[in-house]
Each structure stands twice: as structure tokens, then as C-alpha cells.
Amino acid sequence: MTPRPSQPRGAASLVARRAGIDTYQAPVVYMRADCPVCRAEGFQSQARVELSLGDRTLIATVHHVLADWLRHGEAGLSEAAWRMLHPAEGESLSVRHPPVLDSQRHIRAKVYGVPLAYPQLLAIMRDVAGNRLSDLHLASFVTACAGDRMSAAETVALTRAMIDVGERLRWPSHPVVDKHCVGGLPGNRTTPLVVAIATACGATMPKTSSRAITSPAGTADAMETLAPVDLALPAMRRVVEREGGCVVWGGAVQLSPADDVLIRVERPLELDGTAQMVASVLSKKASAGSERVLIDIPVGPTAKVRSRAAADALTAALVEVGTAVGLQLRVVQTDGAEPVGRGIGPALEAWDVLAVLQRLPAAPADLRARALLLAGHVLEIAGLAADGQGSAMARDALDSGRAWVKFQAICRAQGGMREPPRALYTADCVARAAGVVTGVDNRRIAMAAKLAGAPAARAAGVTMEVKLGQRVERGQPLFRLHAQSAGELAYAEAYVAGQQDLVTIGPGP
Predict the structure, then answer these.
(1) Exposed site from 20, 132, 183, 495, fewest CB < 10 Å?
(2) What is the 3-class SS of 122-174, one letter each residue?
(3) Segment (H or E) for 25
(4) What is the rounded distance in angstroms from the CA atom of residue 206 to the CA atom of residue 108?
């Protein structure tokens, strides 16, 4: 939404009505197909129209209504459109054709393979952040940039454009550190642990995290089962000033806002191209005021990054773009052969985090080890530990209980700590033969968790009951499905039954 100095000339007028329809972040206006305004102006279904109320203006997508719940002279607004315009019920809106956007021309050029420079990408990102582009245009842009269709120069320009259309934070303490995992590995909820350990040791770590794009849970999804994450910028500042760090949803603080809109389109397309991933990650880090950033790249046959060669190429791209936007990066490549921890899904991953922080006997050893490794690197780039000594400092913070105390303090500062939910329905998926676990398909395990309801159903997902190299007997549980409804559990069970070797069992010794 963008402000306008006055009401547009020659605009038609319709009465605002709250339709009560959730279209997520996409503003939609519902108009009768036989509405005189629609007919006179040629507003077809899926057309884009400009709505104005006082100095508030937005561009919305038209959906035609054939039923009588909407009366002549009314414009039904989706929840997203209603939030953006803030009308009173029955207030008069001005409706007109939207201005022609240069960004649409730039998107068409990219579809045909024309390289885009910073001015063109900035125009696109401004219109993306301002919700002036339809989902069709957004999907076209995301698809045109996927794969290897963006050069290194374009990726740098895209990153800068994404930074420049949002706010950029400044912090009084230096250096400001951050950590990010490129994803593709189920579980692996190390970020809350790293933030707790690093801030307990004195680091400044204002962590903004994303929600799931193609995975069963993002860091923000898991953290939300423990504490509020939808903090506005002033609240985020207060938490960091008080505790040294936070774990909040980046979309709530409007850092790199164009990225949050693009993520909404990437999620159903299940596209997370290299250039957009690099721009997404680094624009968020730069916008949050980070100066030194650790990037974790899990590598494995069914991870997002499947080979060392691909990891090396991604590392080079991250370092090149990071340097161009003023970030100091340290990139580590880690084992991505199997899920990390037991839980896959927001609440299940949160329970793992709590077990590690509380040093419970059943805490996942692999999650603990990975968190200590990454926290050690963060402490080193923060200048709090000498190279090679960070892991020992991190271990002391965790084993002494200081990290657990700090995590509770961060949760209280963000609005209060809470207990993650438990699923109502579970089902075990068992070994069909005795043997040794020789493989785990990360992607299909993640799909089973999503079909069970994650991340929308916070308690849903999968818990892994075995690890690579473990001996199992016939009928022994390999993983457990968790769901909030019987229907979602049955859906996930049907998927698992139709698959072969989500967990591969080989002959034992």
C-alpha cells in the first residue's frame, strides 16, 4: 500500500464491505459481475484495480461474485485488503484502473532472458513490497529467476534492491553477529540454541527468521510454539537491548519486505532458486544490522545441496554477494545425510530444543553437537573466542545452564514462554525387515511431515526413532507420524504406504 496526495480523478465509487475471506497477504476485492462499475470500466475477474480511501491506496485483484451476498454498489474486501485500507464498514472507496507499472515490463524482459540491472530490479522490488504486482506477475518473476537464470551481477543487484526497499537497523553494540542455515535438512533446529548460547556468552545476535517455505517448519514456526515471534520493530529493539538477542519473525519487522512477499509465492511453487536464496538470506542479514554472519550448508544426497561441488559453488556465491553488500561471512559445510534431532515439525522441533537446553538424558545428541559446533563458530567470528576455542566456550555455556537461563529470559522479553502443543493422533511406521539403517530420504520424510499437517498444524510432523547405522528388528518403529486430525494422519499414512524406503534397511552384520 502506498500513500496518495489526493483522491484519484475520474474514479468510480463503491461502498466498502468486509468479506471475511482470508487471502493471506494478497489483497482481493470482490465485485458483482453485473456491477455497473465492473461493466462500465471493464473490470474482468483477475483484473487489477486501484482502491483509494483518503490518503491510503492499494492495488487489488478483482474476483467476481455471482451470488446475492454482495449487493450492487458494494466492494467486498478480503482480510488483507481490509487491513491495508482500514475502512469503516460502509465507507465509500474510490475505484479506478491502476497505473501502468514499469516493473511488469522488466519482468517480461527477464522471462525472455534479458539480464536486469539494479534500477530495473529496484523498480520490481518496490512494487513487490508495495503489493502492486499480482501473484501471476510474482510467480513469473520467481520462475524466470529460478535455476541458474541470474548472473552473479544480477544477484548482487537483487540483494541490494531488496535491502533498499526496507528498513536497515543499526545497533549500538559491535560486532553484530548472525547465523543462517540454507535448509533442506529436516529437524536441524539449531538457531534457538545458538542464539541462547552466543548471547549467554555476551554476543549481540538479533536473529530474524523466516517461516517455512518448502519445509515442514521454519525457525519462526518452531520458536512460535515457545514464545511470540510477531514482534514489531520497537519491541524487537527492546528485547535485544535487554537480553542481547532475540528470535523473531522477519516479516513482522519489515526487514527486506519484498522477500516476504516472494516467499509467499515460492512456497506453493516449491521453488527456492540459488540467486533468490542468496538474495533472501543476505538481504535479511544486512537489513537486520548484522555485520558478521555464519552460514551453514548441509550437504547430502537428499538434502537441498547434494554435492560438495554444489556446496562450493553456493559458498562462492554467498561470499561474493556478502562482500558486495558489506557482510563478513564464514561458511561451514555440514553433514546432511539424515534429519537432525528427533522432531520434524514446529512443536516437535521445539521439544528437541528444550531437551538440549535443559540437558535432559533423552536430548538428541546430534542436535546438541551441531549446535555447539555452530555456536562455537559464532563466538569466534564475534571475537569472543580464539579460532578453534569457540566450541569449548559454547559447551561451558550450555552445560553450566547459562544458555537455558538466557533462553528463558529471551522468551519472557518477547512476550512470555509457553509449552509447545502435543498432537492428538500418532501412528508408527515400522521396519519391514531386520537389518541396519543405511539411508534416510530427507525429502520424502519432510513430505510425510507436511502431509500430516506441518507447519500449519503446529503439533504435526514426524519424530525419527532411528539413526543411520542403527540395528533394527522387524516391526520396530522407524519414525512416528503426528497429526492434529484423523484425516491428516490418514493422508500421511497413505503417502508413506505408497513409498519405498523412506528409511532404507540393509543387511546387518
Answers:
(1) 20
(2) HHHHHHHHCCCCCHHHHHHHHHHHCCCCCCHHHHHHHHHHHHHCCCCCCCCCC
(3) none
(4) 38
User: Which one of the listed residues 260, 272, 296, 352 is annotated catalytic?
Assistant: 272
CA torsion angle 408 411 415 420 (round to 10): -100
DSSP, res 54 = T
Number of C-beta neighbours around residue 473 at 10 A:
11
Instruction: Output the pLDDT for position 394.
Output: 98
Write phi, then psi, for 164 (nearest 5 degrees): -75, -15
Q: And the C-alpha cell for 347?
A: 512443536
Q: Which three cell numbers stand for residue 14?
A: 463503491
- Report DSSP letters for 389-429, one per residue: THHHHHHHHHHTTHHHHHHHHHHHHTT---PPP--SEEEEE
Q: Give the model confidence (pLDDT) of 434-477 as tens digits.
A: 999 999 999 999 999 999 999 999 999 999 999 999 999 999 99
CA distance 37 to 47: 13
Residue type at 129?
A
Domains recognised in the chain with CATH numbers: 2-96 (2.40.40.20), 177-255+284-413 (3.40.1030.10), 425-506 (3.90.1170.30)
Task: State residue 194 phi and psi, 5-degree precision.
Answer: -65, -45
Cell of 155: 544477484
CB 282 within 8 A of CB 331: no
d(CA 208, CA 38) in angstroms, rounded, equals 43
Phi, psi values for residue 151, rounded to 5° = -75, 170
Q: In 3D, which of 45, 11, 14, 40 has the Cα closest to residue 28?
A: 45
Helix (H) or strand (E) holding 40: helix 36-41
Distance of CA 359 to CAs 307, 354, 398, 402, 417, Å? 34, 8, 8, 11, 18
Question: Is there a catalytic annotation at residue 68?
Answer: no
Cell of 307: 554435492
Beta bridge partners of residue 501, listed in sequence order = none
Give the three-state DSSP class for 187.
Answer: strand
- pTM of the entire predicted model: 0.86
Q: What is the pLDDT of residues 135-181, one digit of tens each?
A: 889 999 999 998 889 999 999 999 999 999 988 889 999 999 999 99
Q: Which 3-state string (H, E, C) describes 232-279?
A: CHHHHHHHHHHHCEEEEEHHHCCCCHHHHHHHHHHHHHCCCCHHHHHH
Of 4-8, 261-265, 272-276, 294-298, the range with the highest mean pLDDT is 294-298
CA proximity to 82, closest of 109, 47, 58: 58
